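debug: dumping io for the single-chain case to check the tokenizer round-trip. Nothing else runs in this session.
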Amino acid sequence: MSPLTIKALILAAGVIIMAVGFTLYHFRVGNKDGRYILIAIGVSITVFTLVHLSTDIGTALFGVEGVNARMPKPNP
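debug: decoded output
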């Protein structure tokens, strides 16, 4: 399985966890702290995966390796 596929699956899992947290929050099911923790975990997984996917997309489109490659290296 390619790394891009794995990241896409992790992104889908993060979105599902976040949606479950928002659904539980909307219907007021379960513990209040548990709902907030579930939403926070889903959001953090989603943001983390989106950052990594954007780096991969930037590499595929522009041939740029990560965010540090955009900065020119100073000459000593």
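debug: round-trip ok. The mean pLDDT is 84.
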